[in-house]
UniProtKB/TrEMBL annotation:
Keywords, in A-Z order: Amino-acid biosynthesis, Aromatic amino acid biosynthesis, FAD, Flavoprotein, FMN, Lyase, NADP
GO BP annotations listed: amino acid biosynthetic process; aromatic amino acid family biosynthetic process; chorismate biosynthetic process
Organism the protein comes from: Halolactibacillus alkaliphilus
Residues bound to NADP(+): R39, R45
InterPro entries assigned: Chorismate_synth, Chorismate_synth_AroC_sf, Chorismate_synthase_CS
Family: Belongs to the chorismate synthase family.
Cofactor binding: number and manner: Reduced FMN (FMNH(2)).
Subunit relationships: Homotetramer.
A family per Pfam: Chorismate_synt
GO molecular function, one term: FMN binding
Gene3D superfamilies assigned: Chorismate synthase AroC
Protein name: Chorismate synthase
Family matches, as HAMAP family: Chorismate_synth
Its EC number(s): 4.2.3.5
């Protein structure tokens, strides 16, 4: 299974094509729209979320509520394109006509300058329109297809905020994954710990007041995966490595860890590795989950716990210094519409890119032409592992 996205931030639409989904899997636009609308929520979001109402149009690969086995094509229209048609339209323009809102001033922390040098663009709008986090809407659509597949297999996944601007939520080990889903959805900062909700809002408000931005840490938890998904045999089949790549590929993400993550470097081995236990009811499991559900690049049967670090959004209302690529003059970087904090929304994006990689690994390991055969094989394997 793989996907491809196309489209620019202020272009006509975002397009996603997902290939390799088994035939006969129940899938409707509501499955996708729920995820897209979740991505647009969150305290600290900018005005763009009020302009766009992201809803999907499934254009291929689904008939009467079931996948066909052919590529699934999905489109999310940009409602704001009518105001950008002369700037972002695909038709040629008169050579003597000046293009509005050209960009020759790269913004620190963005792809503007590096992308312009790589592709030879003098108008860096060609870079920023595609490198915008708006593209994550298309990735969430792909991940929503994967989440639907996982849900039908009895695999649950949730993404939420662990930390914003140094304000850290307490772990909530007593909550079931269903309760985590409900609590994160009820929180406008998408956090499980109600005691830190207001301090996080206050930090976001303060950053906005100062024309600044703040980042944080997102966490994704997956339950229902049997041991042995992934592989120790080849480096590119290690599932934790794939998840690290997927999370790191999200705009503004700068770090990934599993379980206790970097804390493992500060502990002795006896306080890191998870002791193996066995019961007749559950089979093999671990006494703890310090390694975040992975050993040797494979799932251990414990919940998968992965965290991603999101840096502060680089578009600031108190702009940093840069240099014009044409005049070479020093200037203060231009201001585009921006969020003061997008960590709650990023948790949704992270949830969906993780879901896609997990679903992809499952489809590589089990029969993948027909969904009913996939489910039968997956359920049988889960029982074999339990009785091992």
């Amino acid at each position: 299974m793989r996907y491809l996205t196309a489209g620019e931030s202020h272009g006509k639409q975002l397009t996603t094509i997902v290939e390799g989904v088994p035939a006969g899997m129940p899938l409707t636009s509501e499955n996708i729209n729920e995820s897209l609308l979740r991505r647009q929520k969150g305290y600290g979001r900018g005005k763009r979320m009020q302009i766009e109402k992201d809803l999907v149009d499934i254009c291929g690969g689904v008939r009467h509520g079931y996948t066909l086995g052919s590529p699934i094509a999905m489109v999310v229209k940009n409602d704001d394109f009518k105001h950008w048609e002369d700037i972002m339209g695909e038709d040629p323009i008169d050579l003597d006509k000046e293009i509005r809102r050209t960009v020759t001033r790269p913004r620190p922390g963005h792809a503007d300058l590096n992308g312009a040098m790589k592709y030879g663009h003098r108008d860096m709008r060609n870079i920023l329109e595609r490198s915008s986090a708006r593209e994550t809407g298309a990735r969430v659509a792909a991940g929503a297809v994967a989440k639907t597949l996982l849900n039908h297999l009895g695999v649950k996944i949730v993404g939420y905020v662990h930390e914003i601007a140094g304000i850290t939520a307490k772990d909530q080990p007593e909550l079931t994954i269903e309760q985590k889903i409900q609590r994160s959805e009820a929180s406008d900062v998408r956090v499980l710990d109600p005691d830190v909700e207001q301090p996080m809002r206050d930090a976001i408000d303060q950053a906005k007041k100062e024309g600044d931005s703040i980042g944080g840490i997102c966490e994704v938890v997956i339950e229902g995966l049997p041991a042995g998904i992934g592989s120790y045999v080849h480096y590119d089949r290690k599932l934790d490595a794939r998840l690290a790549f997927a999370v790191q590929s999200i705009n503004a993400f700068k770090g990934v860890e599993f379980g206790i993550g970097f804390e493992a470097s500060r502990r002795p081995g006896s306080k890191v590795h998870d002791e193996i236990i066995w019961s007749e009811k559950e089979g093999f499991s671990r006494r703890t989950n310090n390694l975040g559900g992975f050993e040797g690049g494979m799932t251990s049967g414990m919940p998968v716990v992965v965290r991603g670090v999101m840096k502060p959004i680089p578009t600031l209302y108190k702009p940093l210094q840069s240099v014009d690529i044409e005049s070479k003059e020093v200037f203060s970087a231009s201001i585009e519409r921006s969020d003061s904090c997008a960590v709650p929304a990023a948790a949704v994006v992270m949830e969906h890119v993780v879901a896609f990689e997990v679903a992809k690994a499952i489809l590589e390991q089990f029969p993948n032409d027909q969904f009913i055969k996939l489910k039968e094989a997956f359920d049988q394997y889960r029982e074999e592992i339990r009785c091992f």
